[in-house]
Fold this protein.
Amino acid sequence: MNYSDISSGQTYESERAITDEMVVEFARITGDDNPIHLDEEAARNSMFGRRIAHGMLVMGVVSSVLGREFPGPGTVYMKQEAKFLRPVYINERIRVRVTVLEKIEEKRRLRLSTEVLKEDDQLAVTGEALVLFRKE
């Protein structure tokens, strides 16, 4: 995709599953071994009732969509705001929705709405990103 192919209001969606393997590996890499992510019993006794994915792992999936799918290779993250509204559970499918809010032509930047929806279409994460798009 080229910068000229992108338009304000354009929306892209991608679906992924958040697996146990992803959560365990994320905990290993980051050192975030909070029991609500890794320990069934501790998570069952938490406000969530079962294990949840790390919020930043979920945002990593958003990053993957931006860098690999839409807008795709050549995208450089400059800023991300995120509000975590609902937990994403282990083995839950999520849908990442990216909407172009604004094209900043002179700097080849894009202001994007970033949303993560759960299997039941409830919003898990809402946010806004600013990216630089260098491909063309």
Remarks:
- The longest strand covers residues 92-104.
- The helical segments are 20-30, 35-38, 40-44, 55-68.
